[in-house]
Design a protein that fits this description.
The protein is built from eight helices and no strands. The termini are far apart. α5 packs antiparallel against α6. The longest helix is centred in the C-terminal third of the chain and has 40 residues. By secondary structure, the chain is an all-alpha fold. It has one domain: Phosphatidic acid phosphatase type 2/haloperoxidase (Vanadium-containing Chloroperoxidase, domain 1, Up-down Bundle), CATH 1.20.144.
Length: 195
């Protein structure tokens, strides 16, 4: 498996001959694209509103982060640049690489929209998540298997969220909306945000 991981990295990794525009695209995806998550969730809560989707997505993200951190602690794996594999164009601390935290967040977000939201948005966000995953391997801070692990963590987190939601979701949603209505009473009355 380690050899396969290495060979795949060598296929996907940046080279000295890589076009500048591809490197710049990868840099954007690796560093900035993840910031879409809070923006989309805020819009979905305040103006759409898709509050069940927002809460389930946030819950799945929490599970994903906890599971990814736990796996990284139990099964630490060094990053490619620590082993001298490939080229590294993105600065990164020497933390465990498996599974990717960026990949976990992006895949969890995309799967949430595929499972609980609109299929078209889910497909768009899955392409976006794959772009983030590719960029971090391309720039040399992750192995390909880190992203496969991130996808599996995201899948488990979404299924765990669905199970929790089937038990307590309705009451949690109702209580969350009550708090929102109290805190945002003025913006709601002025029609700045949705009730």
């Amino acid at each position: 498996m380690e050899n396969f991981n290495y060979q795949l990295l060598m296929i996907m990794n940046v080279t000295p001959d890589s076009p500048l525009w591809v490197i710049e695209l990868a840099m954007f995806l690796a560093k900035q694209a993840i910031n879409i998550i809070p923006v989309v969730l805020l819009i979905a809560w305040l103006w759409v509103p898709r509050r069940e989707l927002v809460i389930k997505t946030l819950l799945a993200l929490v599970f994903g982060v906890i599971l990814a951190k736990t796996l990284g602690t139990i099964f630490p794996h060094v990053r490619p640049f620590i082993q001298g594999a490939g080229y590294q164009l993105l600065g990164h601390a020497n933390t465990p690489s498996f599974p990717s935290n960026h990949g976990t967040g992006a895949f969890t977000f995309a799967l949430a929209f595929l499972l609980w939201g609109r299929l078209s948005l889910g497909m768009f966000f899955m392409a976006w998540a794959l772009g983030i995953a590719w960029s971090r391997v391309y720039l040399g801070v992750h192995w390909p298997m880190d992203m496969a692990g991130a996808f599996m963590v995201a899948l488990i987190s979404c299924f765990l969220t669905q199970w929790i939601w089937s038990l307590w979701g309705r009451s949690f949603l109702a209580n969350s909306e009550k708090i929102y209505h109290r805190v945002f009473i003025l913006p709601i009355k002025k029609s700045w945000v949705k009730y």
